[in-house]
Amino acid sequence: MAQIDQKLSFKEKVGYGLGDFAANIVFQTVMIFLMYYYTDIFGIPAAAVGTLFLLSRIWDAINDPMMGALADRTKSKHGRFRPWIKWTAFPFGILAVLMFTTPDFSLNGKIIYAYVTYILMMMVYTANNIPYGALSGVMTSNSVERTSLNSYRFVLGQSAALMVQALTLPLIAFFGAGDKALGYQLTMALFAVIAIGMFYVTFYSTKERIEPVQTEATPLKEDLKDLMHNRPWVILFVMGLVTFIFLSLRIAVGLYYFQYYVGDEGLFSMFAVLGTIGLIIGIPLSKPLTKKFGKRNTYIASNVLSGLAVLALFFPGPDQYYIAYGLSALVGFLNGPGVPILWAMYADTADYAEWKFGRRATGIVFSAATFGQKFGWGIGGAITGWLLALFNYVPNAVQSPEAIWGIKMMLSVIPGVLMILSAGVLFFYNLTEPFMEKVQAELSDRRK
Question: For position 119, which CATH number holds?
Fold first, then answer.
């Protein structure tokens, strides 16, 4: 029986967080390196890559809610969500390697191969990550514990990002020995093995505790109708969409910035690492800041302040990369407290929906949220590719002043402005801490 003061052990929080470590090994590699891999290693035009990233999100509009509904309706001795983490572990690893494999095809053949492997990878990511995200909503009903649980998740997830940022380029050089295509493939093979092992740790170390009150399955149409009438969830969906547009844009262009503006690709690793270190230091502040100021206010302040720091990245000269390093660390630190809050708020909207509509659909709540973020990621990736083409970017060549200016804008001004604007959306979010305590108390009484 779930209680509103349900506490989770350190072991279970770490076990849950390792699932995000596993997913982030691939997710961060895709976010940071896939655009560059496709344009400069695989040889696909930037605009074509942008279109790929956008079109793949159309299938997600169908696939993600289906996966959420399927997870909600899964019945096993291990629960509804945990089994999917185990079932998808090996396909996840295999497709990650295939996505960074370079077959000797024609340009059209390469584009088709990229579409097939990328979309299949995103389908498996969906089947893994939606149940994983929903799992946090059924491990405990305590709002503060959920924030703590998601803090563990994101500290470990960002630790994986740190590993990717620090080791990917050196590993590519080591494994490839001059052959970058081989280096990418073998590096991803190593990451895939680690990810598979971590998924199994998450499966065996977590437990589902909250069961919905209803005994009959609810039609998917009713679940989606409830979702559209769940105003706090809609607000988070819009904010998540905008957030991932600017994250995708800023992260994807980082390698181009250091190779073509600073003039040394190798300096990018430290830029990314310092940003992640700042993020990891900032994430634990989420719990005390949330207790003092509430989730909404903490998230708004985090986005506005980090957005201002992102804007400042436009100004360092090519020989002032150390200033960019400092700003990267500052952006991460200021953004850190807000990172786990978003997922804790999604769990609150699942409770709110159950309280208001009498039906719990945690999988749908998280799947549609994940779709919004993936769609934002796809839009951000598409914008990156299209803007590179618009600014006349030429792979593996000295860039024009126009291209350099465009790369700087994509790293700083454009994502910084979007970051600040996204915070404004949250002013309309109304699930305050006192209100959620009332909701959770009433739900606890219903479940007895």
Answer: 1.20.1250.20
